[in-house]
Amino acid sequence: MRSAGGDGRPGRLARVRARMAALGIDALLVTHLPNVRYLTGMRASAAAALIDGAGILLITDARYITAARTLAEEAGAGLGLAVIEIQKSYDQSICDVVRRRGLAHVGVEAEHVSLARWQWLRDSLRDEVTLVSTAGLVETERMVKDAAECERLRRAGRLLAGVVPVALQLTGAGRTEREVAADIERALATAGFEDRAFETIVASGPRSALPHARPGSRRLTAGDLVVLDFGGVYGGYCVDLTRTASVGEPGEMSLRMHAAVLASQTAAIAAVRPGVQASAVDAAARGVLREHGLAEAFQHGTGHGLGLEVHEAPRIAQAARLQRPGADVVLEAGMVITVEPGVYVPNAGGVRIEDDVLVTAGGCEMLTEAPRALAVC
Ligand code: ZN
Ligand code: ZN
User: Fold this and answer.
1) Do 318 and 281 fall within a single domain?
2) Element (DSSP H or E) covering residue 152
3) What Cα–Cα distance (Å) separates residue 198 from each residue in 33, 214, 219?
4) How far does residue 14's CA lie from ligand 2's centre (Å)?
5) How far is the CA of 291 from the centre of ligand 1 (A)?
6) Residues 313 and 319 sit within 8 Å (Cβ to Cβ)
7) I need a labelling partner for 170 at 20 to 30 A (CA). Which of 96, 137, 218, 303 fits?
8) How far is the CA of 32 from the centre of ligand 1 (A)?
9) Mean pLDDT estimate for the chain
10) Ligand 2 centre from 239 Cα, in Å?
11) Cα(305) to centroid(ligand 1), Å
């Protein structure tokens, strides 16, 4: 999947450095923790990394310093990973090291730095260093997964698909949304996930018409549609899946909505291949729903990237909603995305079907192979 610069962290670092060179910056301050993890392997609730021409510096505090030093030893000389333990504060240590290294143009991840932090860094480094606002330098690299990441996501997808029949079995008349959600999360742990990827959604009856409803105390009732949206983290990587079930025999409206969403998802998955713009996949999903007279009932994007974060680039949405430069990404082999069209009819109910696919040279590979027909619970 990856060639230029090779697989693994040294390759990632080399490609980020090439992007830095194109921007004319001699260092990049990485403060978004998933980006720090991607580049260094460090999983911590607080850390930063500074990339310059000489190497990559992992900056962390006493809680994580042993883990950081172990990582640096394991990484060996190839990555050039060194560790700094902060003294007074993260930002003070960052300023010290930027000065010590004589850096002149330091990129900052604008999407992940508060205005207050930016101002403090700028004021502290005044006259010596120019801070340069950057966006998506590491995130762009993260979109295309290397072989090891693909393997992890394949395994995670298989595990998640295995939870589908369990989740459907847990769904039944008389149970509350919260009970079902808690049981699904236990099933995720039993399946081998280290964590849930997000708060599980169980939305029943009229609440299924709310795309991001939080599970509540409502009891599932015959005739309900129930949207079950859950995901897990495996080896640091997130997978995400939705199925919609009917409590008891589905009515005609439920069947119609489900058939339309299934056809929409099938068309969108068929559109996924290298060279296609993200918005074209969205258009494939939306076109089918329009044919079914349900275009207005589909109000969100068709999907999102998956990886160290459950929502990451690329976004699969309408071209009109991907206005920022580069946001309408051209798909490449190695990208992993969700395909999740849905329809939501206020006061009636909703249907969403979501699967995860890996873009391959010839199209895409389904990572979450599980029955998609409307389940009757
Ligand atoms: Zn989901
Ligand atoms: Zn999703």
Assistant:
1) yes
2) helix 147-170
3) 17, 11, 22
4) 30
5) 25
6) no
7) 303
8) 23
9) 95
10) 8
11) 11
User: Containing domain of residue 44, as a range?
Assistant: 9-142
Domain stop point among 111, 127, 142: 142
Q: What does DSSP assign to residue 212?
A: T
Same domain as 172, residue 124? no
80, with CB counted inside 10 A (0-12, 13-18, 19+), is middle
Of the listed ligands, the closest to the CA of 232 is: 1
Higher pLDDT, 173 or 211: 173
Distance 338 CA to ligand 2 centre (A): 6
Contact 359, 273 (CB under 8 A): yes
Q: Is residue 225 part of a domain?
A: yes
pTM of the model: 0.94
State how many domains the chain has: 2
Q: How confident is the model at residue 323 (pLDDT cuts 50, 70, 90)?
A: confident
What pLDDT was estimated at residue 111?
94
Q: Which ligand is nearest to the CA of 338?
A: 2
Ligand that comes closest to the CA of residue 306: 2
CATH code at position 303:
3.90.230.10
13 vs 211: CA distance, rounded Å: 38
- Ligand that lies nearest to the alpha carbon of residue 241, given by its number in the listed order: 1
| Per-residue confidence (pLDDT) for residue 252, from 0 to 100 | 95
Q: Are 134 and 154 in a shared domain?
A: no
